[in-house]
From TrEMBL:
Full protein name: Methyltransferase domain-containing protein
Domain Methyltransferase: 19-144
GO terms, molecular function: protein-lysine N-methyltransferase activity
InterPro entries: Methyltranfer_dom (IPR025714), SAM-dependent_MTases_sf (IPR029063)
Amino acid sequence: QRELQIFKDIRDSMDQISVILDIGEGNGILLIELVGFELKFEGVYFCSLCRTSRNVLQTEDLSNVEVKEVDFMSCSGELSSFDLCIDKGAFDTISLNPENTEESKACYVQALRGALKEEGFFVITSCSWTKDQLLQMFSQGERTVGDTPGMF
């Protein structure tokens, strides 16, 4: 599956991914796929606002996946030390809101920096921004491990 291609690209760079944050309102399917993707998990966290993810994860009997309902932009350090942060559209929604666009983007980047370990990985998919635009917004000297169409 195309969404997992980036994990194939960076898997060798990962010593151990044990704590993952899925930013947004997804249904938990990507995390279910990652659990079976030969990554070593101690705990996986799914930041969400929807009950669907809890139901899907419970159906799959994934007791190591914890669903927390947290406002990512206002969590003030509540989320920290993640090895991997994944965004499959939350940034698009936040950054395209006509109110406080620049402030919202800066707040998102700040929240991400607080959530992600210094040596952690950030994977984002976007339908609204080009790779170069995303790199400009998110990378400040960090390295890009690899990219696939629509992903880096």
